[in-house]
Design goal:
heterodimer, A: 72 residues, mainly alpha, two-stranded antiparallel sheet, B: mainly alpha, 2 domains
Amino acid sequence: MELCNRLKEIRLQKDLTQESLAAAVGVTRQTIIAVEKGKFGPSVRLALRLASTLDVSIEEIFWLENSTGEKL
Amino acid sequence: MTSMAPYYVSRALISIALGVFLALTGSQWWMAGLASLIVLALFLWAPHSGRYAVHPEFGVTALRRDERTQAINDQAARNAFIVTGLIIAGIAVYFSKIALASVPVAVLNLALLCGMLTYFVSDFWLRRTQS
């Protein structure tokens, strides 16, 4: 199962830079970059902070996909 | 908006204290001054390095590792521990079964050096590949 996200898309919709989102949730810009690229799976705490800051539900940002690309 | 002034003032004082300490313990004044400046430059660079999350509200401890940085540090430390352990095990086997001599201190220093190198290389590599 792969953790997928549309963090970048939602961040851009909200007109936020990586820098400002990072500052709002208390992490480095590199962490936001890593999450957006799917190279780092955030903790539940960080995922919830991202959802709260972007004013969306956590499922709108993150979801799991199986090996066939099917959303779980 | 909270200021970063406490962080910068405290780091300037630490840099000056380091320079004074080096001068008082026998270093030449220009070497002490240079070391002080280098340390101050590192402190000034740190908030912009991307290695730390900046929290001005915490005052003098404004720089914090975030969860990704912490995960990278933990992984690098695990790698270093494993490498050091394996080298020490190899040294122990070699000197007890093959060389039949006591282990020279220089060889143990080499094991520790390899451990440190592993830590820094792992840290550098993980930062490059996880961003």
